[in-house]
Every structure is written in C-alpha cells, then in structure tokens.
Amino acid sequence: MKHQRRKIRRTAEDKVMDTVIFILMTLILLVTLYPFYYVIIISFNDGVDALNGGIYFWPRKFTLANYQQFLSDAKWLHALLISILKTVAGTTLTILFTCMVGYGLSAPNLMFRKFYNVVLLVCMYFSGGLIPYYLVLNSYGLLNTFWVYVIPTMFSTYYCILAISFFREIPYELYESARLDGAKEIRIYTSIVLPLSKPLIATLGLFAAVGQWNAWSDTAFFAPGKKSLRTLAFLMRDVITKNQVDVTSKAAMMQASRYGQVTTTSVQMAAMIITILPIVLVYPFLQKHFVKGIMLGAVKG
Amino acid sequence: MKMKMEKSQRMRTFKRQLPLHGFVFAGLIFLLLFSLIPMAGVIIAFEDYDIKAGLTGIFTSQFVGLKHFKAFLTDRKFPILMRNTLCISVLKLIFSFPLPIIFAIMISEMGGKVYKRVVQTVSYLPHFFSWIIVSGILFTFFSTNTGVVNEVLLKLGAIDKPIPILMDPKYYYGLAVFSEIWKETGWGAIIYLAAIAGISPTLYESARIDGAGRMQCIRHITLPSIKGTVAILLILAIGGLFGSNFDQAMLLGNTMNLSRSEILEVFIYKIGLGQGRYSFAAAAGLFQSVISFILVLSANAVSKKVSGSSLF
Predict the structure, then answer these.
(1) For the segment A204-262, what is each residue's pLDDT rounded down to a tens digit?
(2) Which parts of the chain span the membrane according to its record (chain A) (predicted)?
(3) Which of A34, A62, A193, B82 is deepest in the core (most CB within 10 A)?
(4) To probe the interface with B, which of A244, A289, A294 has the most B CB atoms within 10 Å?
(5) Does ipTM surpass 0.90 in this model?
(6) Which CATH superfamily hosts domain B76-131+185-306?
(7) What domain range is A199 assigned to?
(8) Where are the domains of chain B?
(9) Does residue A8 lie within any of the structural domains?
(10) Given B128, B182, B194, which is nearest A210 (Cβ)?
C-alpha cells in the first residue's frame, strides 16, 4: 500500500505532515521513555547523594546498594515470592479453566447454547459490586488465604469470549476426526485445542499475568489481615503512599536512612525496576499476538 | 429444524455432547458462586446486614427498605463525591478520549516501518505497568523536595518555591487527567489502528490521483470510516462516567488532596471494608451501578439515532 502511494508525487503538504508527525512522535517517545530511564538511573545512584538532585542523564555516584538492600530485605523478598507464586498459579489456572469452558461453548450445534450465552453475558455486564462480593468470599472462607488470589480469578467472561471466537477458527474436522479415532473430549482439549491455540494463550497469559502481578487491591480487599500474603505490588503501594506525603524533609530523610547510602526512595526505585522488569522482558515477544487477540475481541465481542 | 428433531435424536446429541456440557457446567458453577450469588447479594443494601450472619444472613436479615439510600444521599460527603467522580470523568472524556484517535491517525500516516513499530511498541508499554509504578514515577517527578520538575523549574528561575502538585487539591483533577493520558493513550489507539487498517487502500489511491491532499484524505476517508468504532467506544466511555479509576484515586489521592481526590469507589471501599458498614456501602455501590447502567442505555439510544452505531 505504501509503495503504491509513493508513486504519487510528494507535495509540500506531504513533506510538512511527515516532518510534523516525526517530531511529535519523537516527543511522545521521549515523554514515555524518559520517566523510566530516570527511575533506572536513580536506582543505580547513591541514595543520599540523589537527594541533592541534579541527576538527569546518568548516575552520579554509581552503586548497587539499592538493589542489595532490596534483595537482603526479607520482607521484600517474601513479597516477591508471593507475587511470583500468585502470578504463575493464577495465570495457569485462568488459562486452563477459562479455555476449557470456552472450548465447550465453541462447539457448533451445542444444545442450550442460547441459555449459556445469556448467563455469560449477564455475568459480564453486571456485578454485585465490591461489598457483596467481599461478603460472599468471606462466607466461603477464602479471605486471608492464598486461594483468594487465584480461585476467584480462575474464570473471566471476557477471556472466555475471546477463547470461543478463537476456537471457532480452528477447522472443526480436526476435532471430528479425533473423535472418530475414539479420543475423549478432555484429550482433544489437551492435545489438539491447547497446542493449536498458542496465540490465544499468549494473549490471555499476558493479560492474566500482568493483572496478577500488578494487582494490589486484591491484597488490600481480601487479605489485609495476613502479613505473609503481602505481594510486591501491595508493599510498594505502602512505601509509595508513605513517601508521597512530603512531610519528611530532606534532612529527616537523610537521618532516617539507617544504611548510610540508601534511602527509602532509592530502594523504592530499585523495587520499581524489579517489578517492571519481567513485564518489559516478556512483552515484546507477545506483542504481535495480543494485538491480534484484541482485534478478535473487538470484532466479535 | 430443532423443533422437528426426534426426541431420541435430541437425547443422542446430548449424550454425545455430554463431556462438552461438563466443561460448560464447570464454568456455570463458577459463575454461580463468584458472580450470580454476589449479584443477588446486593439485597443487603435494603437490609441491616451483620457480617456474623454469614451467607444465609445475606438473604434473611432485617429488611429496612431505602434507609441506607436515604442516609447515603443525605451524607455530608455525598455532594463532594458526586462532584469529584463526575468532574474527573468528564474531564477525562473531553481530554483523553479524542487523543487515541488522533494518535492512531498519526501512526497510520507514518512512513518509516521500523520507526512506526518502535513508536507503537513503546506507546503500549505504560498500559502494562500498574498505577503503583505510575504513582511512584509521578512522585519522583513532582514531589516538592526531590521532584525533578520542581527542581528544574527552580533552577531556571521560573518559580520561587516548589509547586505542591501532588498535595494541593487544586491540582488534583489536572494530575488525574494528565496521568491517565500518559498511561493509556497508546493502548487506546490499538482499536482505532485496527479500524484504519481495515480501510481499503484503493480509496486513498484514487483520492490521491483525483488530487486530494493527505489532510483531505483523513477528513473524507479515514474519519468517516472509523466513525462506528468511535461511536461504540464513546458509548462505553459514557457508561463509565460514573465509575472512575479506583486504583488511580487510591494511589494519587492522599490526606492533603482528599477534598478533590475522593471518588465514589474510594468511599465505598473505606466505609465498607474499612468501617464495616456493609449495608450502607452496598447501597452506595448499587446507586453507582444503576446510574452507570442508565448512562449506557441513554448513550446507546442517542448513538443509534445519531450515527446508526450501537452496542445492542
């Protein structure tokens, strides 16, 4: 499409537009990336030194102390462990369970499909709100247990609709021939459907994993009473909101720093980098899949 | 067709499909436990519910009618909550709704393939970071004693003393809208990019041959082609007017700017889970849901009339 367009003579308008767009896009790139870059350099800078300001492009007093401090703090490490466990377990359960239901619903000529769809849509558009949800989870005995992170998130109507439209694209003959060969449905699901659904799994996996990893309100709502269940996100929220109220002066911050060269802020920067690192590492590989996945939902949903 | 099907044949189909129904049934059980029962639980908004009453108590507690709704509507915080919730949402609708459209059009007009990909990849990225990270970044940039922005402005002599952007209530609305734009504009553009990609290139080619400039192409081809997508997303956005961003309000809000940052959802959380006034908080939540629902329905009806696009 672009090649053909180039054949048409470039007018002055074209040149002006190209330049304006190029400049704007570069500005957008800078505004998006610089904050992250800034957090990175502060996380590698001596904490007390950073309080004097003036660091914009690279660390002034390079140190790994902030990361060492983070990694030697049992509280942060435990939170990191909980976050990893919850993300891995939660994402796996969500994908396996939601796709299984989606596979069931994707079968053509499924009886009672209308009824199933109505239930699905009602559950997608309506909810009882936070309070009834909390009370129900409470009565199931899920509050303040690890399960509250992974069981209520096992199924998502939105993901299920994505899965259904994806499974409909798989040629139905594949299932039929497997059935003729005597394969059980659960086996068709695990050895035909799932292996053929890598783009879907990548999309749902990314969404579910990011959701689990980033969530702090599930801890705040449903597991506030247990220190051992605190996640990285929750702990970070604690530190940031405490820091945010600028009641502590610079001098107080320097004095309060027990470790000489790190401050709560500089360790927080290291924690932020550690939190976003997994997302940044995985994301570029999944990007092409999730863009497709979103379209699927946009067209059919 | 189905009506004519023999009973025995229906039984056979059902039997053959049994494992599939099993899969679906597992999902239904889940939805019953974690979606439908909580939905029925809104009934506590009309009761005096005590948490000791457990699950059955939800349906058997003392019925008190609209008592909690009256209490909520006459609460001295009610007008403040309404103002904040609506002002922030309306400002977001005005400022951050059109930006993804403009951004998507600009991306689609970009020539260089590699640079285009880089811009897209980078612009989606902030969407995947939590509001915690974003609030941490905002703190490092705008705090009064260590923030970069205040530091640079002070050095340049543009201001005499640091601006308390994170603390002063009068900056909160701007902060909320700005941070939303920064985080979500790139992601919001995805859907418009898809709509634009679906436009036939021959339309542009013939327009160019007929002597149309690029701005004219955007005005007469791109914009009309994505009108339907815009309408649908606008309906959704209007439906969301009453449900602001809980994470954002909890993380950017603090004791200093509470008069502007406290929105309905924050209030429900604090009153309900913090103070244990479950029935009262559930009433506030139900109030919010009902208004949101009315908003979606009306936006849908208006859009159907004006542009012919609608959700349902």
Answers:
(1) 998 899 999 999 999 999 998 888 999 999 988 888 877 655 445 555 555 445 555 77
(2) 20-44, 76-103, 115-134, 146-167, 188-210, 267-286
(3) A193
(4) A244
(5) no
(6) MetI-like (1.10.3720.10)
(7) 66-301
(8) 7-60, 76-131+185-306
(9) no
(10) B128
